[in-house]
């Protein structure tokens, strides 16, 4: 069966006449990777082949952001596909082939997600004056001559379309990517670990294909823009292209709190901040949410420990766990796992640590009398208050109910109707102190029934 497939792809290639077929890549080592035929579950045939399209003005684009131009061209082609053109590239818009024409507004994402989507990557790129595209085409017919003829017609039309894309659009998208890369590289000199540009749109639209927030597209309909509260002193940033934008800068070693009621977009904003490691095409909404690449996320969970150090948080270990806080052996609890993640991030000199209360071990974040009695756990809130020098990373923490942790922050915002509002932490600490005193008095004076 495999031999027949290989014979069919060879016959198709032998009958293709277009000069755009990238025959240099049709090597033995690339067979079944860059060029192959695969029978699909619906009985159709998927033919994958590499092509190359030439435009001399590609040479004038800034190479530092060239993947922006590649992504722009691919998305323009997909726009046509979704209108019914170039139907071979979509299997006539069949749902099972959605990955071939699903929009993608993310480039340079280091996560292995969306690998089946058509986007700028190591197979689809611009080098010098050449645009290299790996086309996945769907055919009803298994006749090599018919397939080759249809490929020649398709590629001819694609070339005409690619040549007509205005250079100014390619340049604009290229500079968009350069702006993001350049600002990310300058964060350290600016004393920042993250920048959230005013006008950013963090909310995402999830589809059957794009289920992860890092690769999901902008939310349709109402998508509230981020605007820095004036009390937090929005900063001005000059971009590579000379334009100036404003936004919120998260400083090195800062403890920044994002709080508010449920379903106000707190976790969404944190996910957008994490996504700031990636570069985004114009229209994604996160183009100017720029985050250091030295970022770590701490969450609860379980793991097998083999000598890990959690001594920053734990003074003693629970029964059943071997070793000592500096060298732990056994199945770790959620708080132990999270403690290790934070301590590892600090030890490896991460610039930024992200924490979301919804995915956290609460007893590790805030002090508790019982946890101190029984577990010997020193909370993150205690460390912030008493051993701040040990926290060499910045923290962005999302919380809705951990008032003590909020009070430990350096600066804070709360989200209301999905808009960022300033939280006066000095006032909050005073009010929280009064609340605790009153609550303590009530508890102390409470009579047993």
UniProtKB/TrEMBL annotation:
SUPFAM superfamilies: P-loop containing nucleoside triphosphate hydrolases. Gene3D superfamilies: P-loop containing nucleotide triphosphate hydrolases (3.40.50.300). It comes from the Archaea. Residues 168-436 form the ATPase of the ABC class C-terminal domain. InterPro entries: ABC_ATPase_C (IPR046834), ABC_ATPase_put (IPR019195), P-loop_NTPase (IPR027417). This is ABC transporter, ATPase. It comes from Methanotorris igneus (strain DSM 5666 / JCM 11834 / Kol 5).
